[in-house]
Amino acid sequence: MEEIEASDFYTELLRPRGLGWCVGTSIRAPSGDTLVFSIERAHAKGPVPRAVAESLDALRPHLARASILSARLGLDRAKSTIATLEAIGLPAAALAPTGRVVSANAPFLANESRVRIGAGNMVQFTSEPAQALLMEAISNGARSQTGFGRSVPVRATPTEPAFVEFVAAEIRTALAGMPDQTRVLFTAHSLPERILETDDPYPSQLQATAQCVSSSLDLDNWGVAWQSAGRTPEPWLRPQSFEERHGLVANVTFTSGLVSFDGRWLAYYGQSDTTIGVTICETASTTGG
């Protein structure tokens, strides 16, 4: 009784509403969750008589069946969602509130190099920071009453076979309508040149991805290029032509327009806010959404 009198649940929630006595039961669901049923009784009426509790025992099998049906329906919905994601090539798994995997599709199971199902059917990332973020999200979700969402970044894998094949498939489709020996440029956003001094893996990762994709497509005519450079006091990785580096506002290039003419693409771009350049090429973009 002393514990009850010291509990905010009773003193601040139940008692002010005239409640404070109850009878209940717990049922272990197939999902691994424990369902607790509590039937409240007016505090003024005193404790629930044992005879009343025994009469309610007859309802327990029905409550158990209802919980099983509810869990089964929820599991069926989860499995249907997982299968739909698999049909469009996305790995997915459904987790119980405790983090236990209740369903996973084949693409998810094929990613053991980065994430797997470990002891106790728990998701385990090979990256410790990613695993810590996942466990934090599960813990926060267990306390949430309105649902939650969380993105968990994983370590970059520039030569991941699935990623390489995805990029290769886009390029393969684009090249189907291009002339033979069309040059393929792999472009990426630029970064300050200081990353080279700290051995940042970004440039080498881009090169590794381009090399793997080119090898899978048997490309000979390809290269890597930087898309843009930021206007900051420090130099960025960027093209080094004189016109792009000198003018009213030096070291700035920006696309002004793209025109399709006579079977070719004409890309007009500003150079240091002074001159206009044009690049003429026969190519196709495989920029993803």
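[next item in queue]
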Amino acid sequence: MMVRGLSSSNSVSAQGSWFWCRGVQAQSKRRVSSRQRPFGSNGVRVCDTPERWCAPLSASIEHPMRILLIEDDEMIGVALMEAMKRAGYVADWVRDATAGTAAMADRVHTAILLDLGLPRGSGIELLCSARANGNTTPILIITAKDGVAARVEGLDAGADDYLTKPFEWRELDARIRAVIRRRDGHAQSLIGTGELQLDLATRELVRQGVRASLSAREFALLHALMERPGSILSREQLEDRIYSWRETVSSNVVEVIIHGLRKRFGDGIIRNVRGLGWRVPRDDE
């Protein structure tokens, strides 16, 4: 697999199905913050990634959508975490089936990337359990198992897509956007209402035909609200879409983002429901 778009000092390549990374120290220090959650008796931690990946790679990139990565291979995980960070995703990483089960139970993620060969259980068992428990989060299998029987088994078990290693990041990124569109019932990359739409591909707000760029956190908040116009989301629900488990939440970040959006696009873009949260109005309002 070659994950493209990474800096030359941290490039990722493969020999067969094995990965190697230049500039990655496997024994780097770990940072544990107030939003990092331990799962499982073996001490596996969510977002157990080298400290270098916990810090923003660019001041201009924040977090539009939240992805759960369930992958036991450290070099593959590090490469994907970096690629997702550079693309602007929130990314939470767990490394075995036990931790994966606990992380999936939170149901705060926009999509899940699932490897099949996991310690402490199989990816297929994890997938079947999630679907049996009513978890409808889009799940993309990423695996070295490229046989037809394996692909059929994964898709029949409830996966929304199946991608074999090696792959390029651009393709995985496009597939993530595609399964999210299908979940929301959209054939195109636009979601929202007739007057106000969000372009998931360009990450722009389209208001009465006019496009406007958004910061990543503005996009994250609007994406959460515009998936289902009219639905009320609480502060905690919005924070879950803006922050990963390893990050410390600023006390008034939701209000600051909403204030900025209202200042740019008008007070009516997001409505406050006293004591409950915020919502984007429907077309019939």
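[queue empty]
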